[in-house]
Amino acid sequence: MNSISENIEIIKNEIKEICNKKGMNYDEITLIAVTKTIGIMRIKEAIASGINDIGENKVQEIMDKYEDLKELSNFHLIGHLQSNKVKYIIDKVKLIHSVDSLSLMDEINKRAKKAETIANILIQINVAREDTKFGIGIEELDSYIEYASKLDSIRVQGLMTIAPYFEDAEEARSIFRNLKSKYDELSKRDYGNIEMKFLSMGMTNDYKIALEEGSNMIRVGTGIFGKRIYNL
């Protein structure tokens, strides 16, 4: 079994290979280590191996780890966010990936204003329309962008999706391609507080396909830390 540093090296080399093949800039790809259930020491090992960004699914885990890691890494909230928990992380995260309702957008805007900060967010799209996943339909996106453009304490920085799990990751390609097409379309529009800077798609199983289809932000947990052991 590889060490954390070996796994990170393998992933970075794969990213470089894909960037070379597709004519992409390696320096513009963000590798987020997904640290759900991972302890501080192992996270620090990943940071020492060149990880600058960590992603948490739960607000509580950000709260638990923040003091130990705030000087070492950027935090990303990548899991579903309930409106009543926004206040706890509004000044702690670099990016909220999972904005999937107008009411959540309103709450983030309100809490950011109160904290005298600007909240950077991604809008989560459920491209495959899976009942088990959060996110808006791709056809709703234009109205969300229009709504967000009127809020003064948030900045939309791109889009996020979670593809269904396929044994053959190739099956996710059309999902990533569809979202990249919409991302490119939005990139041509001009709103003051909206910029298509990040396209967050691709996880351990399918990040290579996502990168090939234009992702510039991948979220990898098991591929870095190995299979998670959950406390029963």
UniProtKB/TrEMBL annotation:
Keywords: Pyridoxal phosphate. Gene3D superfamilies: Alanine racemase. Residues 30-227 form the Alanine racemase N-terminal domain. It holds the Pfam family Ala_racemase_N. InterPro entries: Ala_racemase_N, PLP-binding_barrel, PyrdxlP_homeostasis. Signal peptide: none annotated. The modification N6-(pyridoxal phosphate)lysine is found at residue 36. The keyword GTP-binding does not apply. It comes from the Bacteria. Pyridoxal 5'-phosphate (PLP)-binding protein, which is involved in PLP homeostasis. Belongs to the pyridoxal phosphate-binding protein YggS/PROSC family. This is Pyridoxal phosphate homeostasis protein.
